[in-house]
Amino acid sequence: MEPAKALRVAVVGAGPSGFYAAESLLKQRPEAVIDLFDRLPAPFGLVRYGVAPDHQKIKSVTKVYDRLLADDRLRFRGNVEVGRDLTAEDLRRHYHATVFTYGAALDRRLGIPGEDLDGSMSATDFVAWYNGHPDFADLDPRLDGHTALVIGVGNVAVDVTRVLAKTRAELAVSDISDPALDALAGSQVRDVVVIGRRGPAEAKWSTKELRELGELEDADVIVDPADLVVSDESRAAIADDPVARRNLEVLEELAARPARGLSRRIHLRFLRSPIAIEADASGTRVAAVVLERNRLEARDDGSLAARGTGVTERLEAQLVFRSVGYRGEAMPGLPFDERWSVVPNDHGRVLTARDGDPVPGWYVAGWIKRGPTGVIGTNKACAVETVSTLLSDDLPGIAPADADPAAVDALLARRGVQVVDADGWRRIDAAEIGAGAAVGRPRVKFGTREALLAASRG
Ligand code: NAP
Fold this sequence. Notes:
The chain is an alpha/beta fold. It is built from 17 helices and 18 strands. The protein has helices at residues 16-28, 45-49, 56-59, 62-69, 88-94, 123-130, 155-165, 168-172, 178-185, 207-213, 232-237, 242-256, 367-370, 378-392, 405-414, 422-438, 449-457, and strands at residues 8-12, 33-38, 74-78, 97-100, 106-107, 120-122, 147-151, 191-195, 219-223, 264-269, 272-279, 286-298, 304-316, 319-322, 326-327, 345-346, 349-351, 358-364.
């Protein structure tokens, strides 16, 4: 076999990090060719299935990704699961380098009794469900209760709270999935209680997202001013953090606002941790949550940690959404750091878990590289760093055994994988946008893998 002329790179995961890695690579090495794999038939990862459906402006970042999909140096290969349809070793055989950008698909757990009761679920699953993720089509969030508790005060918690508190009319202008729109329109939830384990100054939400809670059509935001008393230590800790200071100002504005007697209420509470979820008489369904009051204690590094005081309170709630962060998972054949749930790496170069030696030709970017933090744009700088690392390595020195682009497609065909390429995605996209236009919505998503695959065939 002739040595490969162009640098052939596989990118695993067609979310923001995958696209930014591809963009940076094509910019810095115009002769490179890329195959971009995703386990789902549709690209865009968390932009399509994580960003809230009523945040269409954020979702419009996909225009940049669409331009890359139209570049003939990049081939989209959707509905291909690396680790199942293709092994890491297959990638070695066909590419000089692989950049893994498969994100952090799992959710973090609380580790408290009752967490698996009916009505208790991860916010990340709920988000995937209302965004029409095909793997979550069967989720039944049981919106027949009066009170929902959201645990965590990050941006995902705000998204979930807003979606639970919006009216049908507010949701209908988004690209929320049809089943979720119907279920939420019939929701009995009237009170959404959001709980932070630390204080209001330590909350992780962004100011814009927090402010948006106060702008909903039919929901009052209720903040107890007593919850906004911030210690000198907390004030000192956020002295150089303008976002935290603005967040406090917004919370103070919300606390000062008289309730308008609207039909739903969002309660923002702090310094409380759930310690148990209690079942109803049937023993299967969430009925209440036991919360422990916390105080803040300085750690050695100056940050403030929540410590239980032993004082507890009981809150009746029929739904519990744990929104305490995402978590990465191991991919077969790839090193993994169990403690931090990331792939061990040095500036994006994958390292073996045991000795920390570089693994030739393998790289990571995005949440599987650095953990589930930052906004979409954060992944651009992260991917650029990884690509710089990749290009500083002597990759043509490790020529793949079979660099023929047709060989990968032939392999997938032999394994019976129905691959969705960029044209297939365009057919899905056009059909969804067309269905949306007919009902005055940005798009109506296909909610199952079968429907996506059928639409990709046209
Ligand atoms: P996050 O920002 O890390 O927030 C997680 C929250 O869970 C924090 O309040 C954290 O409190 C709390 N928490 C963690 N463990 C807990 C426990 N055992 N008990 C109680 N509370 C616990 O995570 P996220 O909300 O999942 O968001 C992930 C990333 O996506 C973030 O970078 C976020 O900004 C981004 N995102 C952005 C947008 C947007 O821009 N519109 C929307 C969604 C997500 P501590 O601070 O005390 O740890």
